[in-house]
Amino acid sequence: MHFTKWLANTDAPVLWALWQRQALTRRALGEQLSLSRPTVERALQHLIDHGLITEVDAASPTRGRPAKRFGVRPDAWATLGMDLELPEINLVLSDATGEIVQREAFEIRQDLANPRQVLDRLADRMQGWLAESGTALERIAGLGIGIPGFLTPTGVSFVGRNLPKWEQVPVKEYLEDRLGFPVLLQHDVHLMAQAEIAECGSREGLALFVSVRPGLDEDLRIGAAICMNGRVFSGGHGNGGALYRAVIDPGPLTPLGGSERVERIAMQLAESLIHAIPLIDPNRIVIHAECLGGAESELIDRCRTAIEDAMRGEYVGGAEISSARIRDASGAHQAAVSVTRHLLRRAATPEVERIT
Fold first, then answer.
1. Nearest to 23 by CA among 66, 63, 65, 64
2. Is the pLDDT of residue 353 over 50?
3. Considering the entire predicted model, what is its pTM?
């Protein structure tokens, strides 16, 4: 049985508070949750008995004996995170505190137009990967997946000239049936934006997070997410911030090299953003173009110039433009962390039915 199923009424809020704050005393828990000391004691003992929390280093007192603090055990459960970038797949195994335990990157290029074969291959790969690492399936609380497409109530759809044709594919239901644990789907760029917020800390104002990622046919895909006061705006259906047909085709780039290639990418990137800037009027634009390697900073400089030229004379713009700090499998890592966040928040606050 999944660990959140047997949490008593007061267990879930206590576990949720400990996971968010890492370590708290009995008194801090009681004040934060408006619970009596005996109620907090019962919840803590229940969580300890089930191996979910433990006593951690005591807080340094100003006088008297130090107060005991409690925190989530790293080995209490584990979560999987996947960035379905296509053709590249980033896979992360995270412990209960959100630390990465293991990661893997691989490619899938065959039969991409057949969703069932792709999902079966992914499920087989994850099961084999967990078996090799000695991780029991019973320890997995869930799988989070970053999707490079559109999320709808009935499935996942990919739209793009160089993406496989998937229409209303029930990814969540199919993988939950194959794997036996919860699956949580989110937009891939939303997860990258969440990772950037986690890396840099929450900032007030509005930011536009932009990603440039390699596609299936030497093309480049441009994705975006809107961040408001340190939170990602998911939109009415989980697709907020999507840019319309923002793909840089490989044809015009093929004969170019060096700065000429970077200039062409920057111009097309700026063209995709020019219409979004007046619409949302961001304070900051954060660009992730790790796939360009050392040319990323040049891309950002050239894109900044192109946007400034295009917006000259307008009464909008002036956003600070910088490079993202996140690297490697940050989206997959955030997908894994989001599973724990979603499960605990839903258990602690049942009125929350969806990710915001």
1. 66
2. no
3. 0.91
